[in-house]
Amino acid sequence: MQAESYISLALYFVAMLGIGLFAYRQSTSDISGYILGGRKVSPQVTALSAGASDMSGWMLMGLPGAMFVAGFDAMFIAIGLVAGALVNYLLVAPKLRVYTEVADDSLTVPEFFAKRFGQANASVRIVSAVIIVLFFTLYTSAGLVAGGKLFESAFALDYQLGLLITLGVVVSYTLLGGFLAVSLTDFVQGCIMFVALVLVPVVAFTQFDSVEQLNAAAFESIPNLSETWQSLTLVGLVSSVAWGLGYFGQPHIIVRFMAIRSVGAVSTARNIGMSWMLVTIIGALATGFVGIAYANQFNLDVADPETIFIIFSQILFHPLISGFLMAAILAAIMSTISSQLLVSASSLTEDILNVVSTKQASAKATVTMGRFGVAGVAIAALMLAMDQSNSILSLVSNAWAGFGAAFGPLVLFCLYKKDLTHKAALAGITSGAATVLVWIYVPLLPDGQTLSSVMYEIVPGFLVSSLTLWGVSKLDTEPGPKTIQMFSEATQEMADQKS
């Protein structure tokens, strides 16, 4: 790449670190500020922060790559994601904002799970925290793989060096500024991603004389929409659309709802967030579709389909714009990694160390432990990401399913089922996570394949967890009076804020 591209990237890195320093001065003196930004985050920042942390590197690399290889099959994943995000805003966001505050100002998702049952140190808190740390380590490694591939493909740097650069910048501003730094950088990164995912497919399309020429070139390699419908199976459709179920249980997304400044601001955040998502996800699919057409029309060799956005950035734009587009990929990668690191560190400190410790740490010491937690999870994810043969979309899909099945049903039951019991919550989490792990890793089919080759693991995981939550609650004793009182207070608070 030319010097102008490196200048663009350097300015981007400086801006991210500057935001981290600003946030360090604003909100990291206590653990509430470090983890949730003091519950004062604006709807605009909430919307773009939730979107940017959700869409990560797979939006600019994994999803275009899937469209490049599989064609319109990838579109059904996108449909499921849009529907899931919308329902998440409608069903989870407003109630979670109120319920977590009423539940003794719960700062983390595992803490809410425990205090929902009137037990600050309930076993469900530690179990869910352990699941968060394990799956987020896997999830973070997916982002690092994307960063390593970016630096290797775009800058001809060693893959491992790319991992270190990506991780180094993210860890720096996350360590400094906590949740506020993560949210503000996500806002900037979301704006960059929006522009990039409009610009790249539009400019690539201008290389063709007509839509007919574009379609003819693309359909040399992938089936058209009619052929896709004819070959689509019910299991395949359910597996793709079921990605939307994952939204209810993604800690790095729903924690944004806990931090927004008021319930009234949720509708504004929803409108902004869903508009952003629609444009960016269409842009990602369009990048992959135009990419396969361009490769066929102009004999472009694409060794790794997940790098088609990078290739377009290099061959179609001035070096200065190319650097900006590389920054967009880094923005997508870093926004998610930073969110995952912060949530993982929060679970390590608030939900594991503080719970098992016999001494109550000071606010300053807890923030310091949080920073050490960020570094620890980052190092573990770095070790996993050293294998560059990993598929970004595959890593993301596994972690997405794990969280969606383990936490998704429980979040909904906590907010909507008054008689949910602690034993049911614990059984629901473990059964959902276990189902996903068995589906992914145990070769139960005759040819040695796993069940995930037949159906996406979030479907059975979500179903098993939901049935377990319902069944154990029916068999268990009634929840205690403190649990009923908390639920009633939260319901009343919701009604008061709506009126």
TrEMBL record:
<keyword id="KW-0812">Transmembrane</keyword>
<keyword id="KW-0915">Sodium</keyword>
<dbReference type="InterPro" id="IPR038377">
    <property type="entry name" value="Na/Glc_symporter_sf"/>
</dbReference>
<feature type="transmembrane region" description="Helical">
    <location>
        <begin position="369"/>
        <end position="386"/>
    </location>
</feature>
<comment type="similarity">
    <text>Belongs to the sodium:solute symporter (SSF) (TC 2.A.21) family.</text>
</comment>
<feature type="transmembrane region" description="Helical">
    <location>
        <begin position="74"/>
        <end position="92"/>
    </location>
</feature>
<feature type="transmembrane region" description="Helical">
    <location>
        <begin position="6"/>
        <end position="24"/>
    </location>
</feature>
<dbReference type="Pfam" id="PF00474">
    <property type="entry name" value="SSF"/>
</dbReference>
<keyword id="KW-0769">Symport</keyword>
<keyword id="KW-0472">Membrane</keyword>
<feature type="transmembrane region" description="Helical">
    <location>
        <begin position="228"/>
        <end position="248"/>
    </location>
</feature>
<feature type="transmembrane region" description="Helical">
    <location>
        <begin position="126"/>
        <end position="147"/>
    </location>
</feature>
<feature type="transmembrane region" description="Helical">
    <location>
        <begin position="276"/>
        <end position="295"/>
    </location>
</feature>
<feature type="transmembrane region" description="Helical">
    <location>
        <begin position="392"/>
        <end position="412"/>
    </location>
</feature>
<keyword id="KW-0406">Ion transport</keyword>
<keyword id="KW-0739">Sodium transport</keyword>
<feature type="transmembrane region" description="Helical">
    <location>
        <begin position="159"/>
        <end position="180"/>
    </location>
</feature>
<keyword id="KW-0997">Cell inner membrane</keyword>
<keyword id="KW-0029">Amino-acid transport</keyword>
<comment type="function">
    <text>Catalyzes the sodium-dependent uptake of extracellular L-proline.</text>
</comment>
<keyword id="KW-0813">Transport</keyword>
<protein>
    <recommendedName>
        <fullName>Sodium/proline symporter</fullName>
    </recommendedName>
</protein>
<dbReference type="InterPro" id="IPR011851">
    <property type="entry name" value="Na/Pro_symporter"/>
</dbReference>
<feature type="transmembrane region" description="Helical">
    <location>
        <begin position="424"/>
        <end position="442"/>
    </location>
</feature>
<feature type="transmembrane region" description="Helical">
    <location>
        <begin position="187"/>
        <end position="208"/>
    </location>
</feature>
<dbReference type="InterPro" id="IPR001734">
    <property type="entry name" value="Na/solute_symporter"/>
</dbReference>
<feature type="transmembrane region" description="Helical">
    <location>
        <begin position="454"/>
        <end position="472"/>
    </location>
</feature>
<keyword id="KW-1133">Transmembrane helix</keyword>
<feature type="transmembrane region" description="Helical">
    <location>
        <begin position="307"/>
        <end position="333"/>
    </location>
</feature>
<keyword id="KW-1003">Cell membrane</keyword>
<dbReference type="InterPro" id="IPR050277">
    <property type="entry name" value="Sodium:Solute_Symporter"/>
</dbReference>
